[in-house]
Automatic annotation (TrEMBL):
<dbReference type="InterPro" id="IPR003439">
    <property type="entry name" value="ABC_transporter-like_ATP-bd"/>
</dbReference>
<feature type="domain" description="ABC transporter">
    <location>
        <begin position="6"/>
        <end position="236"/>
    </location>
</feature>
<keyword id="KW-0472">Membrane</keyword>
<dbReference type="InterPro" id="IPR027417">
    <property type="entry name" value="P-loop_NTPase"/>
</dbReference>
<protein>
    <submittedName>
        <fullName>ABC transporter ATP-binding protein</fullName>
    </submittedName>
</protein>
<dbReference type="InterPro" id="IPR017871">
    <property type="entry name" value="ABC_transporter-like_CS"/>
</dbReference>
<dbReference type="InterPro" id="IPR003593">
    <property type="entry name" value="AAA+_ATPase"/>
</dbReference>
<dbReference type="Pfam" id="PF00005">
    <property type="entry name" value="ABC_tran"/>
</dbReference>
<keyword id="KW-0067">ATP-binding</keyword>
<keyword id="KW-1003">Cell membrane</keyword>
<dbReference type="GO" id="GO:0005524">
    <property type="term" value="F:ATP binding"/>
</dbReference>
<dbReference type="GO" id="GO:0016887">
    <property type="term" value="F:ATP hydrolysis activity"/>
</dbReference>
<keyword id="KW-0547">Nucleotide-binding</keyword>
């Protein structure tokens, strides 16, 4: 097990009477990618703002390599890069000049600054656009430039707040490629999202947060194992299924639920291999499927299970 890099303990923060973060704890190991998942308003931005040292917590602590982080701890703060949701770029200044401004804030100068600018532009796939102005960039390219800015000082931990919001699909893939390259280079990542599939794509650990509280803190595989039904079989039969047979089908071993009517049914299964037994069972009763398809249950259903509502409610 890799060492703990970031430790977040019992963070709390209110805005007036609204408790945005209500006792959030989790940790990030060296080189690990943690997806912070929750619906809008769950408290993700507030949590990462506190970790990155741009917001003060009312209670709790953040430790990086055992050292306190936060607004007053500049040395630790410097080791954390934040890509905020709102872009901070000068639209009329060439991309590389934007980076030089950011680099100067981190105390980088001359050849070292130029080398870092070139390296981060390469990493985010914008090396050939270095002299172009962000005004001419797509939303996704601007976001990639913002990611580059947060990487100039080679942070041990990079935090990205909803990095794909408002981004076209092509740039979204480019952002994921950049994150994968950072993973290979050993940078620890925390990224927030309200899309389970985005978090599933790269995260080796998922922290689900809602109403400022942590509801789950597990690997994707462990979350997946929590699902009561991990697969679904959709069947269209030649004829309607009788109520009696539907009742029997619902009680078959391995069947976790049944939805449908007439000839069209969705059978929720504990395991996809049970689809074969269900199809055999139907055939033995003279029920001919004219079409069938299986699908893996989506991890998003874990959220539904935990909160009783969908992520995008
Ligand atoms: P998320 O990033 O998950 O969407 P936020 O951390 O932005 O969640 O917000 C958590 C809660 O705190 C929400 O109810 C939001 O309306 C409220 N909130 C966030 N920022 C402020 C602020 N600056 N002033 C007042 N309320 C805020």
């Amino acid at each position: 097990m890799r060492e703990v890099l970031l430790e977040v303990r019992d963070l709390a923060k209110s805005y007036g009477k609204r408790r945005a973060v209500d006792g959030v704890s989790f940790h990030v190991r060296r080189g690990q990618t943690v997806g912070l998942l929750g619906p809008n308003g769950a408290g993700k931005s507030t949590t990462v703002g506190i970790i990155a040292g741009i917001l003060d917590a009312d209670a709790g602590e953040v430790l990086l390599d055992g050292q306190p982080a936060g607004t007053r701890h500049h040395d630790t703060r410097r080791r954390i890069g934040l890509v905020p949701q709102d872009l901070a770029l000068y639209d009329d200044l060439p991309a590389v000049e934007n980076l030089k401004l950011f680099g100067a804030l981190y105390g980088l100068k001359n050849a070292a600054l130029a080398a870092r600018c070139a390296a981060v532009l390469e990493l985010v796939g914008l090396a050939d656009r270095a002299r172009d102005r962000p005004a001419t960039f797509s939303g996704g390219m601007k976001r990639r430039l913002n990611i580059a800015a947060a990487l100039l000082h080679e942070p041990a931990l990079l935090i990205l707040d909803e990095p794909t919001v408002g981004v076209d699909p092509q740039s979204r893939n480019a952002i994921f490629d950049t994150l994968a390259a950072l993973q290979r280079a050993g940078t620890a990542l925390v990224y927030t999202s309200h899309y389970m599939e985005e978090v599933e794509r790269l995260a080796d650990h998922i922290v689900i947060i809602d109403h400022g509280r942590v509801l789950a803190d597990e690997s994707p595989a462990a979350l997946y194992a929590r699902l009561p039904a991990r697969a679904a079989l959709h069947v269209d039969l030649a004829e309607a299924l009788s109520g009696e047979l539907a009742g029997e089908l619902a009680r078959l071993p391995g069947v976790a639920g049944l939805l449908g009517e007439g000839p069209a049914w969705d059978v929720r299964l504990q395991d996809s291999t049970q689809a074969i037994a269900v199809l055999d069972w139907l055939r033995d009763r003279g029920q001919v499927p004219v079409h069938f398809a299986t699908a893996r249950a989506r991890l998003e259903e874990v959220f539904l299970d935990l909160t009783g509502r969908s992520l995008r409610d």
